[in-house]
Amino acid sequence: MAEVKTTREVVMNRAAIAAVFVALIVMLTPIYWIASTAFKPRSLATTAPPTVFFEPTLTPFAKLFVRRSQMREPVDQETYDAAPWWEQLIYDDGESVVRNRRSGEITPSGYWDRYKNSLIISIISTFLAVSMGTLTAYGFSRFKVKGENDWLFFILSTRMLPPVVVAIPMFLMYRAVGLHDTHLGLIILYTAFNLSFSVWIMKGFIDEIPREYEEAALVDGYTRLQAFIKIVLPEALTGIAATAVFCFIIAWNEYAFALMMTNRNAQTAPPYIPSQVGSGLPDWSVIAAGAFLFLLPVAIFTFLLRNHLLRGMSFGAIRK
Amino acid sequence: MARVEFKNVTKRFGGTRALKDLTLTVEDGEFFVLLGRTGAGKTTALRSIAGLEKPEEGSVLIDGVDVGDWTAAERDVALVLQQYSLYPRLTVRGNLEFPLRPKGRRMSEDEIARRVERAANTLQITHLLDRKVERLSGGEMQRVSIGRAIVREPRVFLMDEPLSALDAKLRESLRVELKALHHELGATFLFVTHDQVEAMSMGDKIGVLRSGRLVQVGTPSDIYERPANTFVARSVGSPPMNLIEGTLSGSAANLNGISLPVAIGMAGGAGPLTFGVRPEAMVLEQGAPGEARVFDIEDQGVIKILSLDFGETRLHATVPAGTHVKRDEIVRFGWKPEKVLTFDRNTGRNLAFA
């Protein structure tokens, strides 16, 4: 049977589509801006009004990964021809790659190291927060814990304080125990931030899983741990995915503590990218290239887990 | 196969006691039904045997061995629940294999396949083996969960209202199947239900629980014919036993001004009594001493069930289907004196048990 729609429904439908469209424009414009700037030559990055049509270039990305210096005079043709394509792009912009005086090797910029730090710290802290959170939530959900509500409130209360308030004491403590500017330091910090969140979200998800499943497994001859792994974990997967995405985003984007607690060795990308603004004239397209690459992991991670997320976001949607 | 015993078991949940000093023996190979309302403690009793609850006092014995410190896995019992009893995400075969695959069991693949095959045959679910659990009907699910219990050949089968979620037709047919299964396996079954029809039709023995206490244990006919108190009398039988207040003088019962005969030597004494009589022991005939107004007639084909208003008391009587009565008609009734029971009106105790 054909679906019959009243005029009113048609109008409402179109209005809804229009509203979604407007919202999309508002939300996607900054991302488009970053992405397009990342592919613009330096000269077009700051034009007013902004250039919409341009020939995309990889120059900002080439510049992003190496240390460069301004050239007083143009490079000679022979050197230019011998250089790889990315170095030629840099020459084209009137800059040259800084090389080691003795070995002649190029010196990388700090970006890739910071990026690696971000990946290491975010992934490990997410893993820790989600796994510890899941186990804790399981305990609270399935066992009688003395003062359960007080404990849960205590866990939640760790998030009530704006983290920046404790930044200075944390900084002093970290320096005293030698965690300042270490990967471990930030991993501990981010795990602690995310743990309360992870416990609460996972408790919600695990409460939804009927305990009869595990009890059946226990009676069937499995140990508590085996029952947890075989029955609870697969059922909690949606929740774990949703929690992991949130934890990862929080750790990946964290700025204030990363700025304060690290300076070289363990610095993550967020404080590094804007620090590049300071040296000489800001090269906005390089900064945009750094920001653009920085967006990718979260986008990919979220995209990979999208099926779980869709179900995970709607709490209580687990089939009973 | 095993014998299960409760010895003075008490289990508390917070302030409430779910089981109060429960002592009970289920003999080897018996089909024992625990009957009780919601909250009577029947599920708690079952879970104490399975090792899912730890009683505060008393002990649970399987084959004479105190299993208080044993884990659920070590007790080697099988549990069938009303709901959620199958593992989601697995096929029927996966579910049937699941209990055979714990690390400790070390069973060969051949043996697993053989047992799954046999259980599937017994329960006629062979055609469902490769189906996902979500795609089963309620009856099929319960069949599979019974199958999951039997593949292991456990010492005791524990069943927690396995039929309650099913519709009436299916319940009846599974009832018969379960009895046949019990007969075939010869294993000890402990079956929990709130449905007295289930209890009466399936149990070799019935234990009636009330607020965590065992009220009476006996065969279905024991429970039906000689209920220990008015609670049991009202719990089994549909419609339930009629309870009429009155006193005893000699060999006659005085009920609200009328006098009905009772058996000679009826226990009673002079105090206030409650007389109990099953609906089928009520007799409607011309000239009988009792007078009541017909409130409702339920025609069940073979018989009719009449609801009668006798003064303030609502009575039930089953009469042959051919009996012609109308609503609001005044009828005369008596009873079969040898079927009448007397209860202490204050305690509800069956005085014949004194």
Structural domain count of chain A:
2
What's the oligomerization state? Answer: heterodimer
Mean of all residue-level pLDDT scores of chain B? 89
Strand line-up across the major sheet of chain B:
6-7-8-3-9-10
CATH architecture of the largest domain in chain A: Orthogonal Bundle
Q: Any low-confidence stretches of chain B, pLDDT <50, length ≥5?
A: none
Fraction of helical residues of chain A: 55-70%
Order of helices and strands of chain B: EEEHEEHEHHHEHEHEEHHEEEEEEEEEE
CATH superfamily of the largest domain in chain B: P-loop containing nucleotide triphosphate hydrolases
* Count of spatially separate domains of chain B: 2
Main beta sheet of chain A: strand number and arrangement?
Answer: 2 strands, antiparallel
Largest sheet of chain B, in brief, is: 6 strands, mixed
Structural class of chain A: mainly alpha
- By DSSP, the count of extended strands of chain A is 2
Query: What's the helix count of chain B?
Result: 9
- Calculate the terminal CA-CA distance of chain B, rounded to whole Å: 36 Å
Describe the 3D structure:
The complex is a heterodimer of chains A (320) and B (354). Chain A has 15 helices and two strands. By secondary structure, chain A is mostly helical. Chain A has two domains: 7-38; 112-313, Orthogonal Bundle (MetI-like fold), CATH 1.10.3720.10. In chain A, helix 7 crosses helix 9 (183-208). Chain A starts with 6 loop residues before the first helix and ends in a 7-residue tail after the last helix. Chain B folds into two domains: 4-225, Rossmann fold (3-Layer(aba) Sandwich), CATH 3.40.50.300; 238-353, Nucleic acid-binding proteins (OB fold (Dihydrolipoamide Acetyltransferase, E2P)), CATH 2.40.50. Chain B has helices spanning 42-50, 72-75, 92-97, 109-123, 138-150, 168-185, 196-202, 220-225, 230-235, and strands at 4-13, 16-26, 31-35, 57-62, 65-66, 77-80, 156-160, 188-193, 205-210, 213-218, 242-249, 252-255, 258-261, 273-277, 282-284, 290-299, 303-310, 313-320, 330-335, 341-344. Chain B has a six-stranded mixed sheet, sandwiched between helices. Chain B has a five-stranded antiparallel sheet with strand order 13-12-11-14-20. The interface between A and B is medium-sized, with 18 and 27 residues.
